[in-house]
Amino acid sequence: MTRKRFGSFLPSDMPHRRYAFLLAVVVILALLFVYGQPLPTLSAEPALTTPQAGFAAAGVPAVFTVNQCPPTYEKSIYAPGQIVYLSGTGFQPYEWLSWQIWGTAGSCDPNVVVAHSLMQAEANGSFCFDIYTIPNSDCGRYRVTVNAIYSTYYEVLPPGPTATPTITNTPKPTATSIYVPTQYTINGYVYDENGLLDTPPPAEGMLPLSRVRVELYAGDRKVWHLVDATETTESGWFSLSYVTDAANVFLRVVEVDPNGYESVAAYKPPLYARVVDANTVELGIPYARNPGAMYFVDRRAPATPTPTETPTITGTPPTPTETPTPFAPEDIFTRVLQQGVDGYTGVEDTYITEWFLRANYSRYNMMSLRNGNQMSPLIRYDLSFIPSNSVVLSAKLSLYAASAGPHPMRAELYRVFRPWDIDTVNWLIAAKNYSWAMPGCTQGGADRAADPSDKVQLTETGRWYEFDLTGMAQDWVASTPANQGVILKAYGDIAVQWNFIASEHWRTEYRPKLIITYAITGPTPTMTPTHRPTATPTDTATPTNTPRPFPLNN
Q1: Burial class for 300, CB neighbours closer than 10 Å (0-12, 13-18, 19+)
Q2: How many CA atoms lie within 13 A of 550 on its CB side?
Q3: Which residues contact 528 (CB under 8 A, 6 or more apart)?
């Protein structure tokens, strides 16, 4: 009977089991559908649509604050209690990097370092670390710097209203602002005008230009950083993309003129944009989301060569010397002075910046130059090993440009008069207890020469730039205390920063170099210790430290 009853129970139970099984299948499929949706990851984006991909293509170091490691988007808005993740690309394999977080003016920590440490890049030159947890005391805008060269910004929003308990002890909800990560896509075309002057594109007869580099920059109209880059297709079309949760970011699209072409005009898209110049269109978030197509029009550049500007040697006149007679070949010497090469260790270089008035960058491996009198490199070479009765025939300073913003600018070289100390110099002081006549070594005739000794137009990175300082080098050889080196100042209509490799860089071959050719006249004088003046609170220099000799085997 028991078996019979059990057997009679099975037929009526089977439908319920089938229904339960089908329900389980439906639930599983629903879960797979929900959780199987692709998340917005870097790998899911099209080629060259992420900050990291753009920089990988450009080969330029860059840093970002991001939402996590590995990142899915660039994050620039934070609330107390959230973690700041820092990501970067384009650095040397296993390079040690120093990072700092500074409070900007108007933040709760103006001009204060709230956190700093060291980190190491991976084998591919990239990194991602959680570097900081936002405390309740932070507010406003903060700047994250890596090696004092590469920087990014984030903003800390004030906390919402404090929850106030009611009689029933039920807390009120806290008001918080939510910024959703949004992808902004910018499309456009690049054309050859093909003789169609002043004709808006796309005009019949214009030729599409392929393989033209187009770059996308994000910033606050003062500081810009590259976030994407691509090349035009055979039809001249390009597409750029940027993912961010920021509410007040501006975007700039920059078309890089191909070889043999020059820009004619830029045409903005229909919505909320402006033309900055023939190579640049600017858009503002949130209106930059699918604003419509923009156009750049180029034409073939004339074949006539651009005349080279002849540098003028001005400032304090060099010590008058007689026109040298031809020298015997055995009396002429050429030395290439580069820190750490052939035993030479006489280079002192750094840079000073208006952004961080009291910061000293003598141990950093880059020197930054920014127009608007905001950043200036200082460089000094010890020439005391050259006999004082020598005639300097040529002296050329070469600097290697490692990275830069999207625009060219003019660099001008000035002779420095005021004594400065490499370990304490900053924007405000030349040395401890000894200020510049005007901050930033700016006062002509007191801090430095009033007129430049040479000037060079900076147009592209990854190359050397040469400055002539023959006249002042003659003074420095004749009198070591007169040698206070040189300072670079930059000029241009658009704010931009250029970074040069310094003598502390690990790539010895790219360190600054001075190529000097001189002839020894008469008997070689007996070498006696000479002294460079130490900066003191008065303009009268007091001799102190003995410069390091440079051992030479002629």
Answers
A1: exposed
A2: 21
A3: none
Closest CA to 290 of 251, 254, 256, 255: 251
Output Rg (C-alpha) for the chain, integer angstroms.
Answer: 31
Question: In this structure, which amino acid lies at residue 35?
Answer: Y
Distance CA 177, CA 110 (A): 24
421: its two tokens: 């100390």
**Torsions phi, psi for 287 (to 5 deg):** -80, -5
What CA–CA distance (Å, rounded) separates 211 from 254? 14
pLDDT value of residue 311: 53
Greatest CA separation for the chain: 133
Q: Which of 361, 326, 308 is nearest to 468 (CA)?
A: 308
| Tokens linked to 174 | 């806290």
Q: How far apart are CA 289 and CA 283, in angstroms?
A: 9
Distance (Å, whole) CA 225 – CA 216: 8
Low-confidence winner among 169-178, 202-211, 365-374, 417-426 (lowest mean pLDDT): 169-178
Rank 214-228, 260-274, 300-314, 431-445 by mean pLDDT and report only the highest: 431-445
CA–CA gap between residue 229 and residue 240 (Å, rounded) = 7
Query: Is 54 within 8 Å of 186 (Cβ atoms)?
Result: no
Q: State yes or no: pLDDT of 530 exceeds 50.
A: no
Question: pTM above the 0.85 mark?
Answer: no
Which tokens is 523 given? 């008997």
Task: In whole angstroms, give the CA distance from residue 254 to residue 528.
Answer: 57
Question: What SS3 string covers 458-485?
Answer: ECCCCEEEEEECHHHHHHHHHCHHHCCC
Report how far residue 184's alpha carbon sits from residue 243's, in angstroms, rounded to the nearest whole number.
6
Q: Name the amino acid, one letter, at 112.
A: V
Give phi and psi for 519, each to the nearest 5.
-120, 135
Strand partners, 37: none
Backbone angles phi, psi at 218, to 5 degrees: -120, 145
Residue 236 backbone zone (phi > 0: left; psi -120 to 50: alpha; other: beta): left
User: Which structure tokens are listed for 390?
Assistant: 């020598």
Q: How confident is the model at residue 271 (pLDDT cuts 50, 70, 90)?
A: low
**Shortest CA distance to 346 belongs to which of 553, 550, 551?**
550
Q: What is the mean pLDDT of residues 243-268?
A: 82
* Residue 265 contacts residue 210 (beta carbons within 8 Å): no
With CA atoms as reference, report the closest residue to 70 among 91, 89, 93, 42: 42
